[in-house]
Amino acid sequence: MKYYNEKIETLPKDELEKLQYQELKTLVTRLFGNSKFYHDKMKEAGVSPDDIKSISDITKLPFMKKTDLRDNYPDKLVCVPHEDLVRYHVSSGTTGKPTVVAYTKNDIELWAEAVARSLTSCGLSNKDTIQVCYGYGLFTGGLGLHYGGEKIGATVIPASTGNSQRQIELIQDLGTTAVACTPSYFIHLIDVAKKMGIDLNKDTKLRTAVLGAEPWTDEMRKYIFEMSGVTAHNIFGTSELSGPMFSDCSELNGMHICGDIAYTEIIDPKTGEQLPAGEKGELTITVLKKEAIPMIRYRIGDITSIIEGDCPCGRTSPRIDRLQGRVDDMLIIRGINVFPSAVEHALLKNSFLTSHFMIEVSRKGPLDDMLVKVELKPEAMTDSINGLIEMQGITERTLRDALNVSARVELCPPNTLPRFEGKAKRVTDLRRL
Ligand code: ADP
Ligand code: ZN
């Protein structure tokens, strides 16, 4: 099956815009009438539902930020009666105090529908067995993929994170064809399988990985394929939107944000102006149909761009490029902006390196100092000092060329850097401590 919901996923653009407008108008009218938070926010911005006459009028509406959720912790933004709530989730709290998300029955249904469409666009169906190795619990990853997987009729294994040997055994014993987890956990699973003497390509049915919750790169996709024969797809979401929701398709070229569910904008982080397709800025999403805690023009804080042109897969919803990381993940090293994902991209150009790396930033006198520790592949390990110096030099040069700033490199033996079951924590910024 190519699409989960063909009619809506291939809706002509003008019809999609009409639908988006109707949804937005209904949403704004409801919130203006029944929510103090949204009413006050719109009043303050001098806008009322009457001002929304087309989808492009969305720019008249005020933005929402994570601070709105934090300031209204735990549930002051909920705008349905408590009887209508069926679930709470809480975000990972990567950048500060966690935020609470509440769901009605329809919100859960909408979320599962988005994930079902995404899994189908990754090529999965009721023939697949999907092992969900995202954390089950307050984090949205586990249950999000679980409900979406069941919706497409796949057989879902709620493995959650951890106990990696057991994960590999399950992959073998239950004939798992797809795994969903963070990219850093997946590369850990590849290593564990190898140590157990299992070749994921030859000894298992695993062919697809649906990876998200943290930034990763196309180089990582290639690395994963070479190491395991698994095709890695990218899935994205945040708890505020509901959880993981939108993924790439068979083209592996950008994630489709289902247009009837969410409206996508890219915003200049400084001016708040909407940017055209192709230009990088802050991802801003309006979930058009959320009931419990609607998100209007939510500034997610991740940097990306809308990919220009139609996708050959036939889906008409806009595609966003890989997320480089959040505005606040960005390191400023001697005045140059550096995203950890760009470090990964550069490192994996060297076939002797793995994707296990850590970044340590400190200040040496007046200057910022960046140290990149990265593990060598076992077959690249050598006792030859000259060999090591040469690989170190090559790595430092690739980093300098890619980042426009120099970094010191420490090559580490295999299996010496930390592994992550959930989101990887790769950066220690000693300047901030
Ligand atoms: P927290 O904000 O506390 O980490 P979430 O668990 O909701 O809570 O995480 C959402 C964030 O995770 C996104 O804003 C984004 O930074 C990151 N993220 C999720 N999926 C991806 C992805 N596929 N690529 C890059 N970053 C991602
Ligand atoms: Zn596509």
Shape: globular
Largest sheet: 6 strands, mixed
Report low-confidence residues grouped into runs of 5 or more: none
Please tell me the overall pLDDT. 95
Bound molecules: adenosine-5'-diphosphate, zinc ion
Strand content: 15-25%
* Side-by-side strand order of the widest sheet: 4-3-5-6-7-8
- With helices defined by DSSP (H or I, 4 residues minimum), what is the helix count? 12
Rounded Rg: 22 Å
Structural class based on helices, strands and sheet pairing: alpha/beta
| Beta strands, count | 19
Percentage of residues assigned to helices: 25-40%
Distance between termini? 51 Å
Write a compact overview of the structure shown.
The chain is of the alpha/beta class and 433 residues long. The chain has twelve helices and 19 strands.
Would you mind describing this structure in some detail?
- With 433 residues, the chain is of the alpha/beta class.
- It contains twelve helices and 19 strands.
- The chain has helices at 6-9, 13-34, 36-44, 66-71, 105-121, 140-151, 164-173, 183-195, 200-203, 218-228, 340-347, 385-403; strands at 85-90, 100-104, 129-132, 155-157, 178-181, 208-212, 231-238, 243-247, 255-256, 262-267, 281-287, 298-304, 319-320, 331-333, 336-338, 353-364, 367-376, 408-412, 427-429.
- Strands 4-3-5-6-7-8 form a six-stranded mixed beta sheet, with helices on both faces. A four-stranded mixed beta sheet has the order 18-17-16-19. Strands 10-11-12 form a three-stranded antiparallel beta sheet, with no helix packed on it.
- β17 (367-376), α12 and β18 form a beta-alpha-beta unit.
- It is globular and about 75 Å long.
- Residues 249, 251, 256, 311, 313, 315 line the site of zinc ion.
